Amino acid sequence: MNAPPDRAAPTAEPHLWLARFGDELYRYALGRVADAAMAEELVQETLVSALGALDSFRGQASERTWLFVILKRKLVDHYRRQARSPFVPLDLTPDHAPEAAFFRPADGHWHPEQYPAAWATDEAGRGDLALEQQELQRVLQGCQQRLSAQHLAVFVLRFVEELPAEDICQELSLTAANYWVIVHRAKLQLRRCLEKNWFQLPSPRQT
Amino acid sequence: MSIPSPLFNCRQATLLIERRADETLPFKTQVQLRAHLRLCPYCRRYAFQSLFLARQARAAAEHRVPADVVLPPAARQRIQQALDQRLGR
């Protein structure tokens, strides 16, 4: 038997959700998906699900925190759907794998033209001015959008949402080995893309 | 399952750099990876840049949307209707 609560649990006020939290939920979603329409849809899904789950709102957390938990769940669902839609089997044969573009298949050494270059990311570098920081992040987001849906899903869930590896494997039905291969490939591609489109461009301050 | 040695293999070394963020590698593999990183400036750069990338991606999601962006009116109206319908109003 549940003991009766000693004081009344705060009640949710669903009719005020949109006015109170709509913009904040929308901004959060918009930073994490490719387009505004998808972000709007996620806000709607979140609020509609929350209505259906009102019974599970016990008032331990604030309404706001509770709604954000639901939105994060919706984001995971979104990335899972994206990753699964056109199913691409992993090609693990060394000669055809994407890694072959970076490393010599014979001995696994970097191809000389793929050697990672030094990045000016230190204090004196170009990365620490607020404006340049913003620009770098814009370039990085552009690079992310060029990843395959599956690679993007793994990358975002791991490094933006910071889900544990185990959860990601479960959500996306990946073995641990495949998961690491995907993280590695996504990082290799993003690294190269960022180097090409950001670090190798002349900095306005270096001229 | 044994892990192939990263000692002389940059492909394997960079894969393990990602993997060690998620789990503790066997001791022998850790030693081989450290030895590789001491010898190989390119994989050292990769290791540093890989962390940098992840930090920036997280920051980008947080900062990408200016604080004055609001839910567009059409969407707001649509969502309110969906909620009202379920609230029985």
Structural features, described:
The complex is a heterodimer of chains A (207) and B (89). Chain A has two domains: 71 residues, RNA polymerase sigma factor, region 2, helix turn helix motif (Rna Polymerase Sigma Factor, Chain: A), CATH 1.10.1740; 102 residues, Orthogonal Bundle (Arc Repressor Mutant, subunit A). In chain A, 54% of the residues lie in helices and 0% in strands. The N terminus of chain A is likely disordered. Chain B is mainly alpha-helical and 89 residues long. Chain B has one domain. Chain B has four helices and no strands. In chain B, helix 1 packs parallel to helix 3 and helix 2 crosses helix 3. The longest helix of chain B has 23 residues. The chains are: A mainly alpha (207), B mainly alpha (89). Chain A: GO terms for molecular function: DNA binding; sigma factor activity.
Task: Write a brief caption for the model.
By secondary structure, chain A is mostly helical. Chain A is built from 7 helices and no strands. By secondary structure, chain B is an all-alpha fold.
